[in-house]
Amino acid sequence: MTAYQALAADLRDRIVSGEFQPGDRLPIEPDLCVRYGVSRSTVREALRLLASQNLIRTVRGTTGGSFVAHPDPDHISAYLETSFDLMRVGIGQLMEIRELLEVPAAGLAALRRTGADLERLRGCIVGASGREPGEVFAPNRDFHIVLLRAAGNPLLEVVARPVFEVLEGRFVRDHAPRAALDGIDREHRDILRHIEAGDAEGARRAALEHLDNLRTVYYPSVEPQP
Predict the structure, then answer these.
(1) Residues 6 or more apart in contact with residue 73 via CB below 8 angstroms
(2) What whole-number distance in Å separates Cα of residue 204 and Cα of residue 195?
(3) Class of residue 192 by CB neighbours under 10 A (exposed 0-12, middle 13-18, buried 19+)
(4) How far apart, in Å, do the first and last CA atoms of the chain sit?
């Protein structure tokens, strides 16, 4: 480990431990040089590394400096999305992850949902009759995101959203068969019915059946991958 990596690791530990809170200003460069016995260029490299990891943000000017960043779930999701693509994760593997996340989440949503959650879920059901595939793709996707939020654990959405984004990037939305769209609409309504009733087991069962059926939609509609 180089000097700047060691300095970055120590500062990262102090941020993660809570010694430095989001929004706190880190010690200025001369103070860091003295404390760690390193050069100014080493401090700057360490700060650049922390900034690239979205742990700090640098503000220029007389009132500027390096500040601990506020946690941003979008940064985590974006990193995971890129990683999934680089790893060449297949459709089957992505669907397995969805089952592991969304089936339990449906059960939690049935127990934890609020009135506002139910209204948002209902708003995502627009009906497939007479609509083009592209018109219903976004609300169908949003139904799953709202369901994850209704489960009451923000980490579920952070981890699941990049899975949705990768699938969306590979899914030919305008080629989805009409029968599949009608089926998705019915299955969403079934999941919602169980969540409205507070039926956790029924919600899990309906979510699992829905994801199983989605596999038959995704596979023939995904462009060939290298």
Answers:
(1) 154, 157, 158
(2) 9
(3) buried
(4) 37
Neighbours of 108 (CB within 10 A): 20
Q: Read off the pLDDT of residues 169-222 as tens digits, 9 standing for 90 and up.
A: 666 555 566 667 888 899 999 999 999 999 999 999 999 999 998 887 775 554
Those residues whose C-beta lies under 8 Å from the C-beta of residue 82, and which sit 6 or more positions away, are none
pTM for the model stands at 0.67
Ranges of H-type helices in the chain: 3-16, 29-36, 40-52, 73-86, 91-112, 115-123, 133-150, 154-170, 178-196, 200-221
Question: Distance between CA 7 and CA 132 in Å, rounded?
Answer: 55
How far is Cα of residue 166 from the mean position of the Cα atoms in its chain?
11
Q: Are 134 and 174 in contact (CB under 8 A)?
A: yes
Q: Would you call 189 exposed, middle or buried from its count of C-beta atoms within 10 A (0-12, 13-18, 19+)?
A: middle
